[in-house]
TrEMBL record:
UniProt GO cellular component terms: endoplasmic reticulum membrane
Gene3D superfamilies assigned: Spore Coat Polysaccharide Biosynthesis Protein SpsA, Chain A (3.90.550.10)
Reactions this protein catalyses: a di-trans,poly-cis-dolichyl phosphate + GDP-alpha-D-mannose = a di-trans,poly-cis-dolichyl beta-D-mannosyl phosphate + GDP
Classification via PANTHER family: DOLICHOL-PHOSPHATE MANNOSYLTRANSFERASE SUBUNIT 1 (PTHR43398)
UniProt function note: Transfers mannose from GDP-mannose to dolichol monophosphate to form dolichol phosphate mannose (Dol-P-Man) which is the mannosyl donor in pathways leading to N-glycosylation, glycosyl phosphatidylinositol membrane anchoring, and O-mannosylation of proteins.
EC number(s) per entry: 2.4.1.83
Coiled-coil positions: none
Name this protein carries in UniProt: Dolichol-phosphate mannosyltransferase subunit 1
Species name: Coptotermes formosanus
Organism domain of life: Eukaryota
MF annotations from Gene Ontology: dolichyl-phosphate beta-D-mannosyltransferase activity
SUPFAM superfamilies: Nucleotide-diphospho-sugar transferases (SSF53448)
Pfam family, one: Glycos_transf_2
Amino acid sequence: MGEVSDKEGDGAENGEKYSILLPTYNEHDNLAIIVWLIVKYMEKSDYDYEIIVIDDGSPDGTLEVGKQLQEIYGSEKIVLRPREKKLGLGTAYIHGIKHATGNFIVIMDADLSHHPKFIPEFIKKQKSGNFDVVSGTRYIGTGGVFGWDFRRKLVSRGANFLTQLLLRPGASDLTGSFRSAVCSLTRSVLAETSD
């Protein structure tokens, strides 16, 4: 008689790997929690993954926490790619993509504003339509923001409103950074735009 499993995914069997990028700056208190949550949901779903921590020279000891997590989970799961100083979120993603070994990239914030329980949903959505990019949204369906002050909410809503009004991109949340993409596509776009 076969075993019954509560695992949801099939990523490990078909050679798919997910590189989860976590840019950090002063995330000493959050890094262990977000990594634990990612590991929990990715292991439960049986997806192969790596977590790439891109620390921008955090003075609060974030990188040291990353090193401890690497000892716990192993260097094949926790990949540290620190930079000497704060160089910005966009360049942190580019740096992480250059070091990713997965077929897919997942980008998210390390400050717990993006819950890792949604990563398996991103993966299922991507597979359901063979999409190149899947983007989380705070503004439709079950999306939302928690722990934000009024100013941060206002800036986010205002930027999205202006973008919708001026560009009509067909996406509900362009200022968020919780996305999944095919790695080869991401690298291709970076190559085209880095000239």
